[in-house]
Structures are given as structure tokens and as C-alpha cells.
Amino acid sequence: ARISFQVTSRTDSRTILDAIGAERLLGEGDMLFLPPGTARVQRLHGAFVSDADVHRVVDFIKRQEEPRYEMELLEGGDDEDGEGEDGEDLTDEMYDMAVRLVTEHRQASISWLQRRLRVGYNRAARMIERMEREGVVSSPGAKGREVIARRMEE
Hints:
Layout: E1 2-4, H1 10-17, E2 30-34, E3 42-45, H2 51-64, H3 71-75, H4 93-105, H5 110-117, H6 121-133
Antiparallel strand pairs: 1-2, 2-3
């Protein structure tokens, strides 16, 4: 699904919706909606709330009661979740699976890991960097990373 509020040009509208029209919207909640699986754009009107209204509501809520904080959350709690110094989960089964895939297929790239493990860029990048530190893969070169470690037999 795609939604566009008022934009300045046809190009912007085409970029967002693959159709023109968002440049003619009135603003203040006027929008175009492209539902998934369709090619027909629908014009809708959402509730417009000004910044001043938002600030008034927030101020009202803040006056209702003093904030109560969970001190354990603010202090960071203890590190009983298996995380190392740099925030990596040392018992991460996904990391073990990533090492197994990399050594088995002899390929090591962040995007390849993202696709194979269905994880986000940051997690895949951390896994590759950890593999580099642990000697599983080389540092990036002109032809990508070389897989150094051999496949472990189970």
C-alpha cells in the first residue's frame, strides 16, 4: 500500500504512487491511497491535527500525573542475556546458522545473508563483521570476501 499527501511536482507524485495527482491535493489531511494489488488510486481525507493541537494534548496528559519510571530499565539492568562487550549475543543460533551457510556455500556477503536468513541489514552486517573477527571470512577485497574457514562436519 502507498499513501501520498500533497507534493510539489508530478515527478514526486509518480515516484510515490506511480501515478500523477498528489501534486493537486489540498493539504491538511487530503491524501491519495494506493491499496495493495490494485492500480487504482483512491482519494481520502485523514484527520488533520495541527502542531498546536498536539502540544495542547501532550501538555494536558503531562499535567495529569507525575511520571513513574522503571529504574531497572533506566539503569540498563544486568547482562544475563548472554551479550558480550560489544552487544553481540554470544549464544545466537542465527549466527551459528550463518556460519554454517557461509562455509557450506563458500559465499559471504551481507546481502546474501539477508536473503538466506531473512534478516535485516544491520543484523547481517554484524554477523559478517563477527565472522571476519573470528577468521571465518576475509576482510572485503576487490572481489568481495573470501571464505577462509572450512565446513565443519557434524
